[in-house]
UniProtKB/TrEMBL annotation:
Organism: Fopius arisanus
Biological pathway: Lipid metabolism; Phospholipid metabolism; phosphatidylcholine biosynthesis; phosphatidylcholine from phosphocholine: step 1/2
Gene: PCYT1B_0
Protein name: choline-phosphate cytidylyltransferase
Region of interest (Disordered), ranges: 308-368
Enzyme Commission number, as recorded: 2.7.7.15
Pfam families named among the record's database cross-references: CTP_transf_like
Annotated InterPro entries: CCT, Cyt_trans-like, Pcy1-like, Rossmann-like_a/b/a_fold
């Protein structure tokens, strides 16, 4: 028996067990988690025409209608098939959060995501950054998605809902207008099949495109630096040269900044080392130049010797003077020379008179 046939039989057996357990009211894991049909989130979601998706659709008993109350209570007899659609250009966290809400809006949800092709999108909304093939692949690798429908329609009708066995449609509740209708989900809302999700504020594909357009020069220079040619970026020859010069100037600025940072690091390192050794420097300075330092001592000693050398010798003291010594020898002290007499002055008589010299004679001498 071929391998594919064996796998299909095993899949059917697992599905039968799951159906039986659900009908008996037993809580059991979903087929995606318990069977090879939906092995795990480690595998990308299948397209709507892949065997896994077709098998899941054939397994669904669409004659059993699931109401909103039944779906919310978690007592639905089968998996609830929820459909979400969009463009999903530049797939971002806002898209992922919307799909996460749709996946968890009810217990046991099988999430189908429809993605519009390029032709329809460019006609209805405008040019996209990513191609339809890239957008398909981006969505099918989101962990919350169970199935991807390519070439999804802009507006849903009864035939499309029945073909994919859709129970509910998830989208934000802001009216989404088109050329033909004020709200493309009006019919879905009227049928009671619409469930609302919340938009993620602050992020959208239009915002991302606006950022790129705003900083166009920066991104062109970035890609030129990464090896893209001017032709690939649709840049003229002059603009290419301008952008390349700007890139070189930026490189020089970065190098200069790094050099200054290195200099600053070395300066801070030197300051740190100086602070560590500053106390040693201060102690050595004070030891050499302080008030009681070596240089001060040397200066004081030299000053004393110099003053002693320049000062004249002291005058000798007379014998019998108050400060003189009584018993000093004649050799030690020299008497001052006698006072010179004037030219016409007579010499004074000697003070050393004899004992028999009378007072009358002395008076006579003075009278002369």
């Amino acid at each position: 028996m071929p391998k594919n046939s064996v796998e299909k039989i095993m899949d059917n057996e697992v599905i039968d067990k799951v159906v039986t357990s659900i009908r008996n009211g037993d809580e059991s894991p979903s087929p995606r988690e318990s069977s090879p049909v939906h092995p795990s989130i480690c595998k990308e979601a299948p397209f709507s025409d892949d065997p896994d998706a077709l098998l899941e659709r054939d397994f669904c008993d669409y004659n059993t209608k699931i109401t909103l109350k039944m779906a919310r209570s978690g007592k639905a007899p089968r998996r609830v098939r929820v459909y979400a659609d969009g463009i999903y250009d530049l797939f971002h966290q806002g898209h992922a959060r919307q799909l996460m809400q749709a996946k968890n809006i009810f217990p046991n949800v099988y999430l189908i995501v429809g993605v519009c092709n390029d032709e329809l999108t460019h006609e209805k909304k405008g040019r996209t950054v990513m191609t339809d093939l890239e957008r398909y692949e981006a969505v099918r690798h989101c962990r919350y998605v169970d199935e991807v429908v390519r070439d999804a329609p802009w507006e849903l009708d009864e035939e499309y809902l029945a073909a994919h066995k859709i129970d509910f449609v998830a989208h934000d509740d802001i009216p989404y207008s088109s050329d033909d209708a004020d709200d493309v989900y009006a019919m879905i809302k009227a049928k009671g099949m619409f469930v609302a999700t919340q938009r993620t504020e602050g992020v959208s594909t239009s915002d991302i495109v606006a950022r790129i357009v705003k900083d166009y020069d920066i991104y062109v220079r970035r890609n030129l630096a990464r090896g893209y040619s001017a032709k690939e970026l649709n840049v003229s020859f002059l603009n290419e040269k301008k952008f390349r010069i700007q890139n070189k100037l930026d490189d020089l600025k970065d190098k200069g900044k790094r050099v200054m940072e290195n200099i600053e690091e070395k300066r801070m390192d030197m300051i740190s080392k100086w602070e560590e050794k500053s106390r040693d420097f201060i102690d050595a300075f004070l030891l050499l130049f302080g008030r009681e330092g070596r240089l001060s001592t040397i200066w004081n000693e030299s000053k004393g010797r110099l003053m002693q050398a320049l000062s004249p010798p002291a005058s000798p003291k007379r014998a019998g003077s108050p400060d003189g010594s009584c018993g000093s020898n004649d050799d030690d002290h020299t008497s001052p020379p006698p006072k010179k007499a004037g030219r016409y002055e007579f010499s004074q008589p000697s003070h050393y008179l004899s004992d028999d010299y009378s007072d009358d004679e002395e008076s006579n001498l003075h009278s002369k």
